[in-house]
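S.,

As promised, the zinc ion run. Input:
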Amino acid sequence: MLRAVTVLAAFAALLAAQNRPTLDIYWIDVEGGAATLIIAPSGESLLVDTGFPGNGDRDPQRIAATAVAAGLTRIDNLVITHFHGDHIGGLPAVRRLYPHAVARKFPGEAPVSAIEPVAAGELIRHDGITLQAIHTPGHATDHLCFYWLEEQALFSGDLILGEGTAVIPRVGGSLMDYLASLKRLCSLDIRRIYPGHGPVIEDPPAKITEYIEHRHMRERQVLDALHAGARTIREMVARIYADVPRGLHPLAEETVWNHLVKLEGERRVRRIQEAGRETYELLG
Ligand SMILES: [Zn+2]
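Predicted complex:
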């Protein structure tokens, strides 16, 4: 019985492959994030991100199950948005399943073995699929978005999410770079965004504007808090996030810290370290 089911599944997969008139896109749920499999009419395939390691290779297995359902016997190309574990972690297991797949990413501080570097602006061409690598640091220094020219779609990794706002980590993150990356995207005609987490975004210009505006609003709030006499990050958070539960304040402190680093870099704010206490004051 199992054999019959397997043969039937293989036959259905073959039909699926033969009847593919256009590009197919498969959206694979991996650890709350998403990997995306694109298949050209010829059957050539490309996978964006590989999910998380662990859980008995659950994410790579979900990717493999999707490939089988799509009628594929192999995945040809792998592109990785950035080095965080929930995007690149599944790569070793995916490689074991598809040893001939070519993997590519932007060079990072920690080199990954047997991975081909992608340069900023480089075009990755496969049969009917052209992805342009857009270097978009801010969430991570090696972060790439991939702009799919034929579909005017963007794979945004963790730069833009389907829900909520992106994290700017203390290590490798930069709000200044992040905003510059968002502004870089404004020059592209993007019709749809496939984010690394959350649902597909159907109105990209509105989302990108919302993201930029959100950060500008926070910056104004930080400047207002400094004007009003707040000196420490904790004082600024208490003022800006007065209506947010205190349990979330440590997260808010990270956000305010990111803004202060940006403002310090722009010479609009000075940081003062005194007797183990860090305070900030406006310049000019
Ligand atoms: Zn990330």
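The CA atoms of residues 165 and 211 lie 7 Å apart. The pocket of zinc ion is lined by residues 82, 84, 139-140, 158 (CB under 6 Å).

- D.
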